[in-house]
Structures are given as C-alpha cells and as structure tokens.
Amino acid sequence: VRSSAASDVYKRQAGIRDPRTRLVFRLRFFRALSWKEIAKITHTTTDTVKAIVYRYLREETRSTHGAKEGA
Questions:
Q1: pLDDT averaged over the chain?
Q2: Which are the contacts of 52, defined by CB distance < 8 A and separation ≥ 6?
Q3: At what angle do helices 46-70 and 35-42 cross, to 10 degrees?
Q4: Residue 4: exposed, middle, or buried by beta-carbon count in 10 A (0-12, 13-18, 19+)?
Q5: pLDDT the model gives residue 67
Q6: Residue 39 CB neighbour total at 10 angstroms
Q7: Which residues 6+ apart lie within 8 Å of 26 measured at CB?
C-alpha cells in the first residue's frame, strides 16, 4: 500500500509543469525538508513555499473534480 501511494505522489510531481512548484514538492515530499529549509534553498519565505504547494493542490483538486463532474 505504501509503495502505491509513493508511486502516485511521484507520478503527480512529475506532471507539475512549473519548475519551482515541482522543486518545492520534491523538497517537501521526497526529501522531507521543513518549510524553513525549503525557503532557504529557494531564496524565498516560508509563507511563499507553503502558498506554492497549497495553491497547486487547490488548483489540482478543482481540475480533478471538474473533470469528474463533466464526465
């Protein structure tokens, strides 16, 4: 079960078009870095890196639900 979930997350991040968003995802979910560590690496703030992830997830959820409703 765990490997299937990890595979799903890996596939999802590979499909992220924006390089900065993809980087933040990799650092957070594959390297398990803190928001503070990611902010330092990306030369931004913790609020910004959180916003990048949450914005992407919100948009992804909308597009997924929209696709299901339209089907």
A1: 85
A2: 20, 21, 24
A3: 100
A4: exposed
A5: 57
A6: 19
A7: 13
Q: Rounded to whole angstroms, how far apart are CA atoms 51 and 23?
A: 14
Q: What is the pLDDT of residues 36-68, one digit of tens each?
A: 999 999 999 999 999 999 999 898 888 777 655
Tokens of 39: 């902010």
Which band of pLDDT confidence, cut at 50, 70 and 90, is reported for residue 13? confident
For the chain, what is the HEC assignment? CHHHHHHHHHHHHHCCCCHHHHHHHHHHHHCCCCHHHHHHHHCCCHHHHHHHHHHHHHHHHHHHHHHHHHC
